[in-house]
Here is the input.
Amino acid sequence: MPEFASRDPAASDFWSERFAQRFTPWDLGAVPAALRQFVAHAERPYTTLIPGCGSAYEAAYLSEAGWDVTAIDFSPVAVDAARALLGRWGDRVLQADFFEFVPFRPLGLIYERAFLCALPRRLWPSVAERWAALLPPGGLLAGFFYFDEAPKGPPFGVTPSGLETLLSPYFDRIADDAVTDSVPVFAGKERWQVWRRRP
Here is the structure.
């Protein structure tokens, strides 16, 4: 286990240290099966935002599928790593603060992958409010949600009822499925869900 100076997961230095030391146990190193299935059955390509994108494998995958994708991370080290990994799609990755970032075009989808569970629980109401502000009525919040009641993190888990309380003021859940290809840190504790923005 590497030694880290930063202990606050709400700070970009926390994540930069971990990327710099290649300590990324949340990183699948591939595009998850549930996302591939979602893309295969999507009615149309969505203009997509990936907050807290990390290595951003999904940004390249969605770009190859013809989707308009912007991936953001507030860690400059993560952004550099993603750009190097994505090659010709590296310009889809930007260094930005999720709470301040303004998309270039109206969004149809926000993809959630270990972003909510990376942040302290005190920030979650602000995350949900920002998700809702960024999506128009009918827009989708889709991705992986981590369910666990352990007090410490990251990852910080949520209960099913806690997630419902967090999102139901803004969204209706329209899909909820088991995940078959979790990394060990998430195994047995995450589900693929899709939430639709209410009018």
The longest helix spans residues 76-86. The mean pLDDT is 93. The longest strand covers residues 171-178.
